[in-house]
Amino acid sequence: MVGGSNLGSGVSSHLSAPASHPILSYQNPVVSLTDLTVTEVSPSSLHVTWSAPPNSFRGFSFQYRDPKSNATPGEIRLPGTERSVNVTGLSPRTDYELQLYGEKPNGLYEGPITSKASTAPASAAEKPSLGGISVLEVTDNAARLSWSVATGTFDSFLIQYKDAEGKLKSLPLNGDLREAIISELVPSRKYKFNLYGLVGRKRHGPVSTEAVTEEGLPLPSERLTAPPGLGELSASDITSDSVHLSWSVPSGSFDSFVIQFKDAEGRPQVIPAEGDVREVTIPSLAPSRKYRFNLYGISNRKRLGPLSASDVTSDSAERGTAAQPSLGKLSVSDVTNNSLRLSWTVHTGSFDSFLVQYKDAEGKAQALPVGGDAREVIIPSLAHSHRYKFNLYGVSGRKRSSPLTTEATTASQESEDPTPVHHSLGELSLSDVTNNSVRLSWTIPTGSFDSFQVQYKDAGGKFQALPVKGDSREVVIPNLVPSHRYKFNLYGVADRKRLGPVSIDAITAVPIYLPKFLLGELSVSDITTDSVRLSWTVRTGSFDSFLVHYKDAKGKPQSLPVEGDAREVIVPNLVPSRRYKFNLYGVSGRKRSGPFSIDATTGQQQETKSTEPTAMATSPEVTTERVTTHLSLDQLSVSDVTSNSVRLSWVVPTGNFDSFLVQYKDPQGRLQALPVDGISRTLTVPNLEPAQRYRFNLYGVFGSKRYGPLPVMALTASVSPSLPEQAGVSVPQPKLGNFSSFDISSDSLKLAWTVLSGPSFDSFLIQYKDAEGKPQALPVGPDAREVTISNLAPSHKYKFHLYGVSGTKRIGSLSTEAVTAPLMEKPTSPLRLGQLTASNLINSILLSWSVPTGSFDSFSIQYKDAEGKPQMLPVEGESREITVPNLVPSRRYKFNLYGISGRKRVGPISADTVTASLPQEPPVPPSLGQLSASDITSDSVRLSWTVPTGSFDNFQVQYKDANGKLQTIPVEGVLREIIISNLAPSRRYKFNLYGFTGRKRLGPISTDAVTAETRAPPSLGQLSVSNVTSDSVHLTWTVHTGNFDSFLIQYKDAEGKPQALPLDASTRETTITSLSPSRRYKFNLYGIAGRKRLGPASADAVTAKKEESVQPSLGELSISDLTSNSALLSWTVLTGSFDSFLIQYKDAEGKPQSLPVEGPSRKVTVSNLAPSRRYKFNLYGLSGRKRLGPVSSEATTVKETSTPTPEPNLGEEEPVTEVPTGTESRLGKLTVPEVTSNAARLSWTVPLGTFDSFLIQYKDAEGRSHMLPVGGGSREVVVPNLVPSHKYKFNLYGISGQQRLGPISANVLTTGQPICWERRGGGGNGFHFKILLTHFFPLSWVLGQPLMFESL
């Protein structure tokens, strides 16, 4: 065996799926690949070997797949010297199909040779155990830790250490991680890190390591930083032709950013931004148009993202008649050590809202939104004795006014008010209810909390607890079950105490199923001897892409990808007189629809008379054929040419590239390269020089190969001052004169033109079609009057159009025609390379060469790097030298130069050279820096020191003990700290440090330290039990004296197995879950201090009995109050109770409709029905995850009449259920305090008693009835989606159990003023929309069913 390779899914960057590396299939009649054999088998890996002649292949492509799986095949790329590969990351007891292709030196592929193999069954699970932990990198404020796992796997890891104040810190990590960065450390301090492995509730370990952080502030390149991450993208300052975008970067940093969007004509636009930029204004937009902006972050040639934002530009014709609002004065009052009050006035008009911006004590920007009717606000959480600058903006519509500014300094810390702050929870509200999540939001009337906790039971009845940060006021609860009732309890934690709860109920929505995507018909046309044209239709929906499958003449599967907006494709490279079967698939996301199939026979090669194509449609069939794709580039074009940038566009007819590379030379002749990701098809090249001609070369990169180049020429526009235009004054336009051609050859000609009068043009543009009929465009500078058109075809007629460009206008055109001369045979010089010479540098080599005769299209330089891996460097044909960078000093390299002309490669010529060695610096004499003492206890001191220059062989620490005897401690030369132990408490010591180098002793440097007094050991207080349920108990405890590093709670479960729960030192309470009902438990609490375990403190508890629920059952479903467009459904429940109900029926178009109803309800009105139509209604009862029923009933709606209907009286539509005498609930008055053009706020009172819920009924502008359910704790609600200038009557009913009281009524007339919308970022969970109805009240909750608002 010549060589081996050990590549796996988690190790090698060459291993990937065909989505990024298409499987290649080529033909070669000579087969020299043999003996594809599997030699070693394990549950997760295969070792595969093969045979091949030496030096016969440049590389190999090894592919494997599970034929029973829909997953994409894997591929491993190998160099030509390898004869084996180790495939890892496989599944146990699985059959795999193996294929091997060989890439020959000429670029063609041989093979495949195939084999099959099965992995071994999984062995018994090994007991997990930790390996070692080490420190990879240390800076002044962070350390990078790495660890290994000797056997088995862990669910998670836990790293514990003590911070500079001695407090225990814990960092939980996922089980698949093997390294982590510990940040926020203190310089020049020793830390000990303990790593634990967690499996279930068991903790293994620890394994430990120590590290000393560096002194001072390192260079930025030395700091350990988290990987870059994008935050939120928001839009502001929206006008009729521009949008201001701003974004955040929570962690790391980016080299640059790219913003992508489509203009009004649907063309993709790209705007680059520097890495330190966080905002940009997008100009030249169209009025009243919706745009979607995507932001990508570029870091180390990788693209992260996107973040997206959608907005609509304002109407260009919109003019406000009202006075523009303006701000007055901004002042500061009530300044304390951590807060102050801002007050302001509004000079004229009114604002929808205000925005206060300032920077906190760490320099981070903060923004505080305020309602439009407010004139003051309190800024909390400030730092004492710190100066702040506050900016106040007024927001009106989408515009932001100029800021008012003021400065203030907070009071010192000594001026704190000793009065304790009272913490209280406000209201808990619900919004954004979907079928699997809800958004909870709450208020804090007074004080502040350290954290919050949301508790609820999942669909299986298991207790769930979700912690939330103390500065948050909302959270999204995910992973819920559709159509299920949940009760959420919110607790606030402040000063180790838990307050609350405040509660709210919610029912998740019914899931919405999107319509399927359907293919239409597949047809064939334009059949030749080697190609066919396939055409198809799409019946419903749209696809991301299409895939055409067929088998070639040798029976090998072929695959041709097609873009999603295409409806036809030409299949090339077919064999004459052969029948093919084509399968078409539609791809949407990760799903594949189809196939649709058709047969066709290619034409005969010898016959001149065309034959009719035979096409026969067949039924769809399932296929698992391998995907093969050929790669090609085409149609590189130039557009949007300015004085300093051009836009390049290209197409990829077949295949997919990993990335692209654009190369060009700047005006100084230096080679520039711009990498582009594989999904892009456009690129804006910035920072160009005006009136400069550039040649751009496009390469496609696939794996380690580069395809191309595809060249194009472009001339940037010149910079000319724009002509001022004043209103009412006409500006003369420049005019073109004559346009002619001359000096015509077989492949080029010259064009000349004149300019008659007027001002000069900014530039000229010449357009024509090449010999293949493709449009070509050539920009020309403003001073030119002639240009040479090259690369033409002999004996071909061309028509040229000349345009003059002035500003953004194109004036002209003039036209001329010319026929190129016939091709003349010219003697060509033979291609020959001269000599290759090398000039030595430390880490690079300058190569230069000569070309005695002929010319080459390009050159290729090949060599091996320090690791022996082949490297290839392409060079343009006109170059004669290049610098090879990133070499290793004092190493021999051999460089081979090839000349490329068309498809021929000439050479190589070679040169050997050795890179220069690093310069030797004279040794620096060692010196001692400073000696300091830290971590002082009653019996020990930590000494640390610095060495500014040089190094020492060893150190020596001297001091006198409590008896006055001299003590000497030797220290190794690599250490910079030591712990001196066995000292006496409350005693002053003087420590001297000496440094030894050879036989010389330097120093001493000294420091004094006084040991601490002896402290009493920590002790536990009492352990108590509360909040006992059938499956959980709540434990709380106290600490009498001292501090513990952590706590441990132990108890036995229902099966008698010991259980242990570790807790951090700051915890004083916890909830023990997953207990058994009606069982006695004994809980033991231990305090951990260092390596000692103190305690236990014990407590007994007996869990409550489990309540047995009655199986609910449905009664009868009846229909009444039929109208032409609605029906009243009512039903009974025989036994038990339901969480909610679901009514299903089909509308007039036959589409299924679902209507969720709350559990206490027993009737509902179904609206939006069709007249004179029979409906069947099915009622289901939902209890937990079960759905019972249905019970059904049928009815026919009333025939619609043209008789005018009287004024609607919603109070008489449904009978009122009288409440029995002696009820404690009574409705008061219904009022409408606020109304706008499309919404109204209803408010009501309840003088006596309480209601379970309320129901509001009204009719819309078309006379259809509507119902809006409201929670029993609410006293107001906003009714949206009303019509301007329309009269409405609202009826309010109170629901108590199965009884309905009321109605109380109110009439209202909507206004003509529109609603303003404001959008705020949602913290990574989408966007939260806040409705501002004419600058007063926000819509802040939804009950029963979600109110859905569409994004602007």
From TrEMBL:
This is Fibronectin type-III domain-containing protein. Residues 599-621, 1193-1204 have a biased composition (Polar residues). Residues 398-423, 595-621, 1188-1224 are annotated as: Disordered. Residues 32-122, 129-220, 229-319, 326-415, 424-513, 518-608, 632-722, 735-826, 827-921, 922-1017, 1019-1109, 1113-1204, 1226-1315 form the Fibronectin type-III domain. GO terms for cellular component: extracellular space. GO terms for biological process: neuron projection development; regulation of cell adhesion. InterPro entries: ECM_Regulatory_Proteins, FN3_dom, FN3_sf, Ig-like_fold. Keywords: Repeat. SUPFAM superfamilies: Fibronectin type III.
